[in-house]
Amino acid sequence: MQLSFHGAAGDVTGSCHLLEVAGHRILIDCGMFQGSRRLHDENAVAFGFDATAIDLLLLTHAHLDHCGRIPLLVKRGFKGRIVTTAATMDLAKLVLQDAAMLQLEELRHRHTDGTPAGGEPLYTSADVAQAMAQFSGTANYGAAFELVPGVRATFQNAGHILGSASILLELEEVGVKRRIVFSGDLGNRDKPILNPPTPAPPADAVVMESTYGDRNHRSQADSIAEFRTAIIAALKRGGNVVIPTFALERAQDLLYYLREMIEQKLIPASTPVYLDSPMAISATEIFKRHQECFNPETRALLAAGVDPFALPGLHFTRDTQASIAINGVHGAIIMAGSGMAAGGRILHHLRHNVSDSRNSLVFVGYASVGTTARQIIDGAQQVKLFGEVVPVRATVTTISGFSAHADHDDLLKWVGKPGQIFLVHGEASAATVLAADLAKQGQSVQVPKMGDSVNLAGAATKAS
């Protein structure tokens, strides 16, 4: 029983873990590295294992840093099944198709920042189609099933995005039994649409994310109030509110909150709200197809005939011309991807709004080091957009409480008392703090590095 770490080890992106047990090689996630150019280029290098030798892939959820290299894995010879929930399968198809398109677009525009043009994308739309043919969206929350002889899997609600899961694997090899849990990404409490994460079951080992392992979020109530204040203030100035928005979950959460604000008459019903993200628009449609993932409050709204994502002044902008037309608006709320402002239509909106003091930039989630969003959040006085250096004069508001990730205290509560904890998916500072606090509670903790491996058969048993 061997576990090795091939992504999100010592960093936040690129989740990829390899489990070798009972003659099988099982991959948990195969995500893309995101952030700086250096990280982008790392996506093309060897995985650290033979793609043709992988038997199965388990996918925790559809964010790009967990699923983004799956088509590349298939392209390099992976022939096995990809097992996940039905909602994750639908969202992954959307996310991967978008990633293939963006890679082609980036190759066309790389010369704008002085980087030589040319090269090939990691994968194409055809590669995505081939990968999707290997998906099986048959995993249901709480239902144990045999993956292969010697391995049983149970997907549990992770509360992170629609369809997201933590995965319990029950292993048996030559009489040795072990239980290992992969957290995936764990959700924040009190979200408006999804149920909170199901706590980790008893286990010998847990591989757990640590994105916010060094801090707690503001309360949801305080975060919503801060969001309202930022929007009302910008609209009173006659400015725009520009929100770099993650297409999955964050966009839907914000539509939910904006609908409530209009119902409470905090902002005029006539306020133009632009969801300028074809992927977020499609994701919202997928959300409506998977109401089995919703919490009781959201299901009650739907039963009462209320669309939780509908606004009187909402404009869905799929095509490029409609997106360009937004450049001339004032007194509007503009939501566009990517959430980290690492690419996509948000960069155009930033270029047209970042230098006007009437406007507000509202950041509602995590931004990796090296991204434009992180530069602005960290107080940059100017940023480079499309080769042009532009001053930052807009009001900047960062609302960490809307994060889709569990914070420090919730991570401590979620994990329970396993025999061994491996912290992944976090910057070194976050993982170090969380590891120290877990150790104070008597936990055995490791923070693995890329390429590290551990023998699970030797782990102390605390599962029951």
Computed structural class: alpha/beta
Helix content: 25-40%
State Rg.
Answer: 22 Å
The tally of domains stands at 2
Low-confidence stretches: 460-464
Number of helices: 14
Describe it.
This protein has 464 residues and is α/β, with parallel strands linked by helices. The chain has 2 domains: 269 residues, Ribonuclease Z/Hydroxyacylglutathione hydrolase-like (Metallo-beta-lactamase, Chain A); 183 residues, 3-Layer(aba) Sandwich (Rossmann fold). Helices cover 30% and strands 20% of the residues. Helix 4 packs antiparallel against helix 5.
Which descriptors apply to this entry?
seven-stranded mixed sheet; Rossmann fold; disordered C terminus; Metallo-beta-lactamase, Chain A; 30% helix; alpha/beta; 464 residues; 14 helices
SSE blueprint:
Blueprint: E1 2-5, E2 17-21, E3 24-28, H1 37-42, E4 56-58, H2 64-67, H3 70-75, E5 81-83, H4 86-109, H5 125-132, E6 135-136, E7 145-148, E8 151-157, E9 165-173, E10 176-182, E11 205-209, H6 220-236, E12 241-244, H7 250-263, E13 273-276, H8 278-289, H9 296-303, E14 314-316, H10 320-325, E15 333-336, H11 346-353, E16 360-363, H12 372-377, E17 382-385, E18 388-391, E19 395-398, H13 408-415, E20 420-424, H14 428-440, E21 445-446, E22 453-455
Helix pairs in contact: 4-5, 4-8
